[in-house]
Amino acid sequence: MAIKGLGQIDKEYDGSKLRIGIIHARWNKTVIDALVAGAIKRLKELNVQESNIIVESVPGSFELPFGTQRFIEYQSKIGEPLDAVIPIGVLIKGSTMHFEYICDSVTHAIMNLQPRVNIPVIYGVLTCLTEEQATSRAGLVPGVMHNHGEDWGAAAVEMSTKFK
């Protein structure tokens, strides 16, 4: 049993002046859609205007780090810079080593992206051993676990406003 997310402290942060990007993989669509919806729901609860939530997609989780960097650069280039971005992906273990390589590569690339882009990049990648774990963490199994996308939305607002 997991303890739910970030707790109540995130209510201290006001996202009304923020532009938050969400870039998601298209693999595991049902889980991805739920996670994106959870992130958007929480961003709105923290006063981020719907027009300031920009959503894009890439083919898979492996493409998230480069897609995230290009997404941030493009938004700056058009004069609408982001305050934070949430790359969202779902990796589910199969019968080969592919899972381990992709998890490790994507995790390190997203982590190393933050100093280069100089905005918060929230780690929104589920790395699950089973489909059941993924659906639970997306809030798709009632009463089992909460939607982790909500935590990622809250983290984006906190990290965008906390040290200004």
Q: Work out the count of structural domains.
A: 1
Share of residues in strands: 15-25%
Rg over C-alpha atoms, rounded to the nearest angstrom: 15 Å
Which strand order do you get reading across the main beta sheet?
Answer: 2-1-3-4
Mean pLDDT over the residues: 93
Could you name the CATH homologous superfamily? Lumazine/riboflavin synthase
CATH architecture name: 3-Layer(aba) Sandwich
Please, could you describe this protein's structure?
InterPro entries: LS, LS/RS, LS/RS_sf. It catalyses: (2S)-2-hydroxy-3-oxobutyl phosphate + 5-amino-6-(D-ribitylamino)uracil = 6,7-dimethyl-8-(1-D-ribityl)lumazine + phosphate + 2 H2O + H(+). The chain has 164 residues and is of the alpha/beta class. The chain has a single domain (16-161), classed as Rossmann fold (3-Layer(aba) Sandwich), CATH 3.40.50.960. 44% of the residues lie in helices and 16% in strands. The protein has five helices and four strands, in the order E-H-E-H-E-H-E-H-H. The protein has helices spanning 29-45, 64-77, 98-117, 131-137, 148-161; strands spanning 20-25, 53-58, 84-92, 124-128. The protein has a four-stranded parallel sheet, sandwiched between helices. Helix 1 crosses helix 5 (148-161) and helix 2 (64-77) packs parallel to helix 3. The longest helix is centred in the middle third of the chain and has 20 residues, at 98-117. It is globular. The termini are far apart. The mean pLDDT is 93.
Task: List the keywords.
164 residues, alpha/beta, Rossmann fold, globular, transferase
